[in-house]
Design brief:
single chain; 260 residues; alpha+beta; 2 domains; 7-stranded mixed sheet; two-stranded antiparallel sheet; 4 helices
């Protein structure tokens, strides 16, 4: 979609913030990716698939300080005019439940709430096929691959609504390389085509509803002091010699018994 037809805003339980304030930027671009960007997306999607199958991979990524999720500005090879809009930036959120809306029409704050003013009523221009390169809460942390990173949703219908429900969990990470306070989240998703009565009363777009968990996750990497390591090593060696001596005496006893 063109940037003129789409707008982003954030609503929480305490106040309304409109993404037009400069925290979010709208960049006209082409929806088709370059070969380098396609390779980056395939890498992230492969990691996501492996994380679902092998959860220990997350521990390895954190310890290795993997930072492959950083994506630079879009590069456009096509000579055709821009046919899509890239929305990027950051918003300061309160630690309460809220909604991030990317919907048809520019958002406006009113005395009784907020509204989206449609640039045109032609439904053919509203197609919310999208990619999410990166979505995170809190400070960026090496090694964390968030569930929506690398997500791609394509719809053939113009009037379509995508919904993501996020549970955000505060996370403290302490490794030998870095320490940080960040957030992880889990996500469930739902999509529906706006037809009939829905088409009349609902607005197409991308809705991200998030809630902050009251729990906190602590991820720490701890090493063993040299003195403790030497004590354990001595204990292991002593145990080996003791066990070997017992086995030697037992074998000797059995041999002597058999030979009378």
């Amino acid at each position: 979609m063109q940037c003129d037809y789409v707008g982003a805003d954030m609503i929480d339980q305490t106040e309304i913030r409109v993404g037009e304030s400069g925290d979010l930027q709208y960049e006209p671009t082409c929806f088709e990716l370059t070969e380098k960007e396609k390779a980056w997306q395939r890498t992230i999607q492969t990691i996501q698939q492996q994380l679902n199958e092998e959860h220990n991979l997350l521990e390895f990524l954190i310890k290795s300080s993997f930072n492959g999720t950083t994506k630079g500005p879009r590069a456009v090879d096509s000579k055709d005019p821009p046919n899509a809009c890239r929305i990027h930036g950051s918003l300061k959120l309160n630690k309460v439940a809220g909604n991030l809306h990317i919907m048809a029409g520019k958002p406006y704050q009113l005395s009784f709430g907020h509204a989206h003013a449609l640039a045109t009523k032609d439904p053919k221009v509203y197609n919310f096929s999208h990619r999410i390169d990166h979505l995170s809460f809190g400070e960026l942390s090496p090694g964390l691959i968030h569930p929506l990173d690398g997500t791609e949703k394509i719809t053939e219908t113009n009037m379509h609504m995508f919904q993501y429900f996020l549970i955000v969990v505060p996370t403290e990470i302490n490794t030998f390389k870095f320490s940080t306070n960040t957030h992880q989240y889990s996500v469930t998703e739902k999509g529906k085509e706006l037809t009939g009565r829905r088409k009349r009363y609902e607005v197409p777009g991308i809705l991200l509803k998030y809630d902050i968990s009251s729990l906190k996750i602590l991820i720490s990497e701890k090493g063993m002091p040299t003195s403790q390591f030497l004590i354990r090593l001595c204990g292991i060696i002593g145990g080996i010699f003791t066990t070997a001596g017992l086995l030697h005496n037992l074998c000797g006893f059995i041999i002597n018994l058999l030979r009378c």
